[in-house]
Design goal:
Its EC number is 1.2.7.8. With about 200 residues, the protein is an alpha/beta fold. The protein has one domain: 3-Layer(aba) Sandwich (Pyruvate-ferredoxin Oxidoreductase, domain 3). It contains 8 helices and 7 strands; from the N terminus they run E-H-E-E-E-E-H-E-H-H-E-H-H-H-H. Strands 1, 2, 3, 4, 5, 6 and 7 form a 7-stranded mixed sheet that branches. Strand 5, helix 2 and strand 6 form a beta-alpha-beta unit. The longest helix has 16 residues. The chain is globular and about 50 Å long. The two termini are about 25 Å apart.
């Protein structure tokens, strides 16, 4: 149980257009509805489609809006290389959930760089962290009805972790408050798919 002396730290990262900010808003509203204090940091990077985006949420007691190095309880990465970029926020016990579908920057070719394989990223994370959950987010989102539900797949995966402080019920209620009603069933399916993937792993 969170109190004034501790917090649950959520770091969310990816690229613009993946629904990262909306995911943060849904988590934040759910936390407030459960009676917690919550703060979300400013957005880092460029929020337009294709630019790197990250948000930081602290639920419960906190001294600042910025998550200190190695203090994230969970990292939710919408893109594999962004999971790697976020590791300065992780410790061995951090839950790391990441979408396995890469978005390869066009600049790599300009600088003769090669995007690492997702398998190598996964292997490296598993070697160094205890709780790593690769999720075929795009595949599950499409199965739910649209790739646009990717963020809800990953959110479902996040709330499936035993340490996540918010209930599935409050997350779903917040989702319905923040997303268009005609997409509620699709997003509910996406949440359930992400949730079940982690629960069955």
């Amino acid at each position: 149980m969170l109190n004034k002396e501790n917090s649950y730290n959520v770091y969310i990262c990816g690229v613009g257009g993946q629904g990262i900010i909306k995911t943060s808003v849904i988590i934040g509203e759910a936390a407030m509805n459960e009676g917690y204090d919550v703060v979300m940091s400013e957005i880092h990077g460029m929020s337009q489609r294709g630019g790197v985006v990250s948000t930081e949420l602290r639920i419960g007691g906190y001294k600042s809006s910025i998550i200190e190095k190695f203090k994230s309880d969970i990292i939710l990465a919408f893109e594999p290389s962004e999971a790697v970029r976020a590791l300065d926020k992780a410790n061995k016990n951090t839950k790391i959930i990441f979408n396995t579908s890469p978005i390869i920057p066009s600049t790599l070719n300009q600088f003769n760089q090669v995007y690492p394989s997702v398998n190598s990223i996964t292997e490296s994370l598993n070697e160094n962290y205890d709780s790593v959950y690769p999720v075929e987010g795009e595949k599950l989102a499409i199965e739910s009805g649209s790739i646009l539900s990717l963020n809800m797949v990953l959110l479902g995966a996040a709330i499936a972790n035993d340490t996540f402080p918010l209930s599935k019920k409050s997350i779903i209620e917040s989702m319905k408050n923040n997303l268009n009603s005609k997409f509620h069933n699709m997003n509910l399916n996406a949440i359930e798919k992400g949730y079940n993937i982690v629960k069955s792993s």
